[in-house]
Amino acid sequence: MTLVEELKWRGLIKDISSPELEEKLNKGGLTFYIGTDPTADSLHVGHLSSFLISKRLKDAGHNPILLVGGGTGMIGDPRPTTERAMISKEEVAHNFECLKAQVEKIFGFKVVNNNDWYKDINVIDFLRDYGKYFNVNYMLDKDIIRRRLDTGITYTEFSYMILQALDFKHLHEHEGVDLQCAGSDQWGNITAGIDLIRRSTGDEVYGFTMPLVTDSQGKKFGKSEGNALWLDKTKTSSYKLYQFFINVEDSMVIDYLKIYTFLSKEEIEELEKKNNEHPELREAHKALAREIITFLHGKEEYDKAVSLAEHLFNNEFKDLSKEDIADLFDAQDIKQVESNTNILDLIVTMGAASSKREAREFLTSGAISINGEKVNSLDLEVNDDMFIDNTYIIVKRGKKNYYIGRK
RNA sequence: GGGUAGGUGGCCGAGUGGCUAAAGGCGGCAGACUGUAAAUCUGUUCUCAUACGAGUACGAUGGUUCGAAUCCAUCCCUGUCCA
After folding, report:
1. DSSP readout, A319-376?
2. Surface-to-core class of residue A351, CB atoms within 10 Å of its CB (0-12 exposed, 13-18 middle, 19+ buried)
3. Distance between CA atoms of A14 and A19, rounded to whole angstroms?
4. Facing residues of A334 across strands?
5. Interatomic separation, CA of residue A151 and C1' of nucleotide B68, rounded (Å)
6. pLDDT, tens only, A293-348
7. In the structure, how far is the CA atom of residue A313 from the C1' atom of nucleotide B83, in angstroms?
8. pLDDT averaged over chain A?
9. CA of A241 and C1' of B71: distance in angstroms?
10. In chain B, which nucleotides are within 7 Å of a protein Cβ?
């Protein structure tokens, strides 16, 4: 299977700038880049699919560069709906440092910052050297701009595509970059860069995008309870990642294996078969969680997540020692609590409910368990006997939300 | 600058003086059923409160009124048309 055939099989190619790119991809030796803006201090699962492409291309003999947009991050890539809130320069700088460190650690690729070349371009040069290559009619024709015309878009965000085109050109001239890949929402920005380079230098460069990863409802994939799943394990524990992937819908799990893992076609087809015959075993889900967590955080973190899940879902934690619990849970997830308090207060201080009123609601609807036993009583007093190994107390809300308290 | 249509709870969207903490849908949370799946059904969903009640809220500020998301004034923002 050639690289392009594999990428297509995995469902990773949506738009491709020209047919000749396929040949070049199969041949190897291209220098390419992929970019992201420092809008937060960590990448999240939503970024993962397109970042993994850089790994696939690298393994096939291409040379990756990761651009973290310290400059573009201060402008804001237009979203389809509304204007972005601006991020302070200090925050962008901070986020940049975090992302750089993270990306180097996980992917091990060279990281560049577009602010390094923007800072020497003044307004007049910008308008003369780059602005002249962009007809406003051309810009208005881009899908993302058109969608914003009825809700409004500021000049700042309107200019974003010029900056990204400029990035492509800079990297083409200074780093030998001939290819840009990204998520499909970036297609307009990529083609803007290809056009700029062709018109200003005559060189032919390429781009391709991958489809947005969604769930079966067509919604963006990669959020748990509405929150992003961060690739920084101090922000999202391996256990949470494990839970997320193990709970993926059956109908999507094979697609996700193709997108998010490096398992071979044969291995994935084998898992597909198992998934069809015995979905309740969730072999495919387990493989998905295993591959991703091991890639991101290592085997040890993965084993820890599995062990924790087994204990929790088999209700085995009563026999655990305090050392086991301290080992299984991340210290950041353990809340300090006091004995001899009312159950309502306990639930609130542990974060399982946001107010006493809500805590009451959960208790009366049978959503709360303590150390594996359902609690309905509103006026239960929490005493020393309820702490495992006289140290920890485990509150469960709903089916799979666990909260750990330490005395 | 002028005309015009708008700005409602996380989102969409009804509501044109009291019965409105504000219909309905989506999303979220919880329960049942399951396989920690999907689908379905049920409850819940501004904040606080042991369900009494209180506080905040319909772009902003002021006003009319016993009473305003609803009327008036000024301002801000968005679309759209004209210049």
Report:
1. G--HHHHHHHS-GGGEEE--SSEEHHHHHHHTTSSSSHHHHHHHHHTT-EEETTEE--
2. middle
3. 13
4. A404
5. 30
6. 999 999 999 999 999 888 888 877 777 788 888 877 877 778 888 888 889 989 99
7. 70
8. 90
9. 55
10. 27-32, 34-39, 43-44, 47-50, 78-80
For residue A226, which nucleotide's C1' is closest to its Cα?
B28
- Categorise residue A202: left if φ over 0, alpha if ψ from -120 to 50, beta otherwise: left
Q: What is the tens place of the pLDDT at every residue in A71-119? A: 999 988 988 877 887 788 898 999 999 999 999 999 999 999 999 999 9
d(CA A149, C1' B64) / Å? 39
Task: For residue A251, give the nucleotide whose C1' atom is nearest its CA.
Answer: B38
ipTM of this complex? 0.82
Query: Cβ distance A371 to A319 under 8 Å?
Result: no
User: What confidence tier does A225 reach under pLDDT thresholds 50, 70, 90?
Assistant: low
List the A182 CA – B3 C1' distance (angstroms): 45
